[in-house]
Every structure is written in structure tokens, then in C-alpha cells.
Write a structure and sequence with these properties.
This protein has six helices and four strands. By secondary structure, it is mostly helical. The strands form two sheets. Strands 1-2 form a two-stranded parallel sheet. It starts with a strand and ends with a helix. The protein binds 4-nitrophenyl phosphate.
């Protein structure tokens, strides 16, 4: 799960998807395209909306996506079109590029809808992001379990 800062959207996406997959069969992680928040905890507003929904993301630590991630992971879900472009530039091969998916295209195929960045907005932005990610990770978890578990 990849966003810009790895403190608002992708930590939520990681925590929510991980809660829907068997831990012995899947490894879910998140990263940012930027480096400002490397080593930081998620934004307290993300921690809070996750906690209200029974998910603890408070132990996550921010990191920046790296080229090795394209070998390490089978699927790379990005939150918005800007992340999509940045991650695609980092990908070295056609196989690596094929792993990169705009996350809401799982719900709205080919519509290229962004998960909006809630960082500078009001706190209800985090509730909206949570709801979008909860809905789309239902589909992703179902697909991954069918295919790999
Ligand atoms: P995120 O939100 O990409 O969902 O983690 C952001 C967090 C921090 C910044 C930008 C976006 N920032 O500019 O520091």
C-alpha cells in the first residue's frame, strides 16, 4: 500500500487489508513515495479512526518505497494518480510496472479515482478515507484469498 507520506492513507490501507487476510499466508506492508516521514508513526487522526474501528495501526513506522519492493511484493496498490506516476517511474521492468494498481480501480475499473489526501483537511476526511479503503479492501481480500489462499 503506497501513498505520498506513508502516515495517513497507506497505513490505514495496510491495517485494514491485513485485518481481512490470514496472517500465515499474506504479508501486507505500506510505504510512501516521499521520505519526510520515514521512521514516524502514522498521523494521530489515522490511528484514531482505525482504533474506532477496532484496528491498531499505532505500531507502524513510515518508510519510503524502494526498488527492491517490486521483487518483494506481488501487488502494489497506490492511493492516487500522482503516486501511480511516481511508483511507475521507479519500476524497472514491465513485470514490475504490472504490479502497480490504482487502488480504487478495483471498485471503479478504469475510472482512475483518487483516494483523497486527508493530511491538510478536516478530520472527517479521515472517516471518508477509512470508508473507501474498507470497501475496496473487501474486494481485494476476496480476490487475493480466492487466488492465493
Ligand atoms: P499520506 O498524506 O500521503 O496519505 O500519508 C500525507 C502526509 C504528509 C504529507 C503529505 C501527504 N506531507 O507533505 O508531509
Amino acid at each position: 500500500m503506497v501513498c505520498l507520506g506513508n502516515i495517513c492513507r497507506s497505513p490505514l490501507a495496510e491495517g485494514i487489508l491485513a485485518s481481512k487476510l490470514p496472517k500465515d499466508k499474506f504479508f501486507v506492508d505500506s510505504a510512501g513515495t516521499g521520505s519526510w516521514h520515514v521512521g514516524h508513526c502514522p498521523d494521530k487522526r489515522s490511528i484514531e479512526v482505525a482504533r474506532k474501528n477496532g484496528i491498531d495501526i499505532s505500531k507502524q513506522k513510515g518508510r519510503q518505497i524502494k526498488v527492491a519492493d517490486f521483487d518483494e511484493f506481488d501487488y502494489i496498490y497506490v492511493m492516487d494518480n500522482s503516486n501511480f506516476n511516481d511508483v511507475n517511474h521507479l519500476a524497472q521492468t514491465p513485470e514490475h510496472k504490472q504490479k502497480v494498481h490504482l487502488i480504487l480501480n478495483e471498485l471503479f475499473p478504469d475510472e482512475n479515482v483518487d483516494v483523497p489526501d486527508p493530511y491538510f483537511g478536516a478530520s472527517n476526511g479521515f472517516t471518508n478515507v477509512y470508508q473507501m479503503l474498507d470497501e475496496v479492501t473487501d474486494l481485494i481480500a476476496e480476490k487475493l484469498i480466492k487466488k492465493h489462499a
